[in-house]
Amino acid sequence: MSSNETEIANETRPTTSNPLDVVPDEIPFDVSYGLPITLDRAQAVIHAGVAEAKNRHWKMNVAVADSGGNLVAFQRMYGAMLAAIQIAEHKARAAVTFRRPTRTFEDGIQLMNLTYLLTFNGVIASRGGIPLIDQGVIIGAIGCSGGTDSQDEVVSEAGAAVINQLPATDK
Question: Is the torsion defined by CA of 93, 98, 101, 107 positive or negative?
Fold first, then answer.
């Protein structure tokens, strides 16, 4: 093959690489675990999530896990789907143990075809699990279930938003 033919052959090769081959400079979602969320703060998170769900006339289950993935508080709204109880708890645990919103897994599987994510213990590829980060550390996570994934995420976001509004010493 002449050098001209080699250049043409090289130009026709795809220039995109496998996104899994990229080596990031830093570890993604590298947020330290902090002290566990208190019961009062967990209840405030749930209250905000339930208020959002009530405003929209959605029936939800809302769970808050601490920084170790243990259930701290839970509320099932009247009429919320029974199967969604365990799903809400699972979303909270997954968000805390993997230090990322559960939407990350949904996107990885649905948009990037990273089906290997389903092999990890504790993964749930469904929106609605969000870590609770206070002063740069994870203190817990909220998980919501009962609606569509996008509805669950809206309720979780409303609950997670209160963490930076409460004093860190609230007991």
Answer: negative
Please state, in angstroms and rounded to a whole number, the distance separating the CA atoms of residues 68 and 95: 11
Helix (H, G, I), strand (E, B) or coil at 91: helix
DSSP state of 36: P
Could you give the angle at the alpha carbon of 52 between the alpha carbons of 87 and 74, nearest 5°? 40
pTM beyond 0.85: no
Buried (b) or exposed (e) across 55-85, using 16+ Cβ within 10 A?
Answer: eeebebbbbbbbbebebbbbbbbeebeeebb
Q: What is the pLDDT along the chain (171 residues), one digit of tens a residue?
A: 555 555 555 555 555 677 778 888 888 788 899 999 999 999 999 999 999 999 999 999 999 999 999 999 999 999 999 999 999 999 999 999 999 999 999 988 888 888 888 888 899 999 999 999 999 999 999 999 999 999 999 999 999 999 976 555 544
- Interatomic CA distance for residues 42 and 30, integer angstroms: 23
